[in-house]
Design a protein that fits this description.
Distance between the termini: 53 Å
Strand order of the largest sheet: 1-2-3-7-6-5-4-9-8
Order of helices and strands: HEEHEEEEEHEE
Number of strands: 9
Strand content: 35-45%
Shape: globular
Number of helices: 3
Helix content: 10-25%
Largest sheet: 9 strands, mixed
Structural class: alpha+beta
Length: 149
C-alpha cells in the first residue's frame, strides 16, 4: 500500500476568500492579483500593468487581503530585507512580503490604508520600480545579510 503525497490547500484561500482575481499580461510582464477587496484588486492591476518592473519572465503574483478586523494603529514604516525576501510593516496592521525568487507579493492591509497609498507608496517601496516611489529609504541597521530600512 503506497501513500499518495498530500497536497495542502492554500491556507490563505482556505481562511479568507479572495473572490476578486485578475490575470493579465502586458508584453513580457504578467500580473496575477487576488484579493478580498475589489478596490485593492483593481488598483493593483491598474497600477501594476503600467509600472511593474519585476522578473520579466515570471511576472508577479499578488495576494492582498484587506484586514478589516485587525489593528490599524500608526503609520510608521519599516522595511526588513534578507536575501530574496523583503518585508514592509506599516503601523501595527499592515504587512507586505515580497519573495523575489518566487516572484510573489503577499500582504495584509489594515483598514486605514488607502488603495492610493498602497499602490503608489507601499508596494513601490517594497518591490521597487513600481509606480512613483517618492520615498527614499534610509539604511538604519546592517548585519550579515539582513537590512532594515
Amino acid at each position: 500500500m503506497t501513500e499518495e503525497p498530500c497536497r495542502h490547500t492554500d491556507l490563505l484561500r482556505r481562511f479568507v476568500p479572495t473572490p476578486y482575481v485578475f490575470s493579465s499580461c502586458d508584453g513580457p510582464n504578467g500580473l496575477f492579483v487576488e484579493s478580498n477587496d475589489l478596490e485593492i484588486a483593481l488598483g493593483v492591476r491598474r497600477t501594476g500593468l503600467a509600472h511593474c518592473r519585476v522578473d520579466q519572465e515570471r511576472g508577479l503574483v499578488c495576494k492582498l487581503i484587506r484586514d478589516i478586523g485587525g489593528p490599524a494603529n500608526g503609520s510608521e514604516r519599516t522595511i526588513v530585507s534578507d536575501g530574496a525576501l523583503r518585508v514592509l510593516y506599516r503601523g501595527t496592521g499592515t504587512i507586505l512580503i515580497h519573495d523575489l525568487e518566487r516572484s510573489e507579493l503577499l500582504g495584509f492591509i489594515a483598514k486605514n490604508v488607502k488603495v492610493e497609498e498602497l499602490v503608489t507608496s507601499l508596494i513601490p517601496a517594497l518591490v521597487g520600480g513600481w509606480g512613483n516611489n517618492d520615498s527614499t529609504p534610509a539604511l538604519l541597521q546592517t548585519s550579515d545579510k539582513r537590512h532594515i530600512w
